[in-house]
Write a structure and sequence with these properties.
Oligomer: single chain
CATH superfamily of the largest domain: Alkaline Phosphatase, subunit A
CATH class of the largest domain: Alpha Beta
CATH topology of the largest domain: Alkaline Phosphatase, subunit A
Number of helices: 8
CATH architecture of the largest domain: 3-Layer(aba) Sandwich
Shape: globular
Structural class: alpha/beta
Number of domains: 2
Helix content: 25-40%
Largest sheet: 9 strands, mixed
Order of helices and strands: HHEHHEHHEEEEEHEEEEH
Radius of gyration: 18 Å
């Protein structure tokens, strides 16, 4: 399996015709295994009240899952759902952030600073706003709310793609200090971007794991009893494992101890986020992606 396999074009008409001819039980099985294209019905997904997505950095699946250096992440995987066949889209880092946020790398091939407000493509935030749902990002070490600076200390704009889009208010880009302690006040969907040390980019696996426990365990525990969801994934691997990355889900909507073995990537995660939020729009490649299935209560 390579990281390219989840992106192969799907022939919608032929699959629809096939599905019509198959027994309902087999169609459902295809949806669960991920071989049924977009057959995984959004209606079969739960509707969490809050979703928090955290993007970590530059580690392969085998470096995190089962590692004694990441006890907290492994506890989330055991108490939630683990995607065992999850992939980044490309290298280097920045295009993957755009992929999971907008369903496209938007032509970005490097890690340099982008032009703020230069893009108008549909994305998760613009779709939520259009549907009159709430959105926000929480960016560790961002100098102040709405700041569009390229770099400040351990903050790096390359990990905050939302500032590139003119259809996303800069004011929805918060500092991490603004992450609410009353989790009921969180937006319907939000992204958390740790800084370059906390996300394991510049610091150790243990440092990042401890940061997650310190800063998000409260939300994770609350999510278990408040119909909410935590998603933790990685931008890319260490360039040694075919871009195979850890992705895990945790919260009340998730079957504890479940695994998803189908092949998923950042476009699959975006598609699932859109459908979990009850959106009818799908940005870019998310329109062709398959929902994450088989792990929900």
């Amino acid at each position: 399996m390579t990281s390219a396999s989840p992106d192969r074009p799907r022939t919608g008409r032929s699959k629809l015709a096939l599905a019509a001819a198959l027994p309902a039980t087999l169609v459902a099985a295809l949806a669960v295994t991920g071989t049924g294209g977009t057959a995984a019905a959004a209606g079969s997904l739960p509707r969490p009240d809050h979703i928090v997505v955290v993007m970590m950095e530059n580690h392969a699946y085998a470096q995190i899952i089962g590692s004694g250096n990441a006890p907290y992440l492994n506890s989330l995987a055991k108490g939630g759902a683990l995607l065992t066949n999850s992939y980044g889209i490309t290298h280097p880092s920045q295009p993957n952030y755009f992929a999971i946020f907008s369903g496209s790398t938007q032509g970005i091939t490097g890690d340099g600073c982008y032009s703020v407000g230069s893009m108008s493509a549909a994305n998760l935030a613009s779709e939520l706003i259009a549907a009159k749902k709430t959105w926000g990002s929480y960016n560790e070490s961002l100098p102040k709310e709405g700041s569009t600076t390229c770099k400040s200390g351990d903050y790096a704009q390359k990990h905050s793609p939302w500032f590139a889009f003119k259809n996303v208010p800069a004011s929805s880009g918060h500092t991490f200090a603004q992450f609410p302690t009353d989790y009921s006040k969180l937006p319907a969907v939000s992204f958390v971007t740790p800084n370059l040390c906390s996300d394991m980019h510049d610091c150790s696996i243990g440092t990042g794991d401890s940061w997650l426990k310190k800063n998000l365990d409260g939300y994770a525990s609350w999510a278990k009893t408040h119909n909410s969801l935590l998603v933790v994934t990685y931008d890319e691997d260490d360039k040694q494992s075919g871009n195979h990355i850890p992705t895990l889900l945790y919260g009340q909507p998730v079957k504890p101890g479940s695994t998803a073995t189908a092949s998923y990537n950042h476009y699959s995660v975006l598609r699932t986020l859109e459908d979990l939020a009850g959106l009818t729009a799908h940005a870019g490649q998310a329109a062709k992606a398959t929902d994450i299935t088989g792990v929900w209560n």
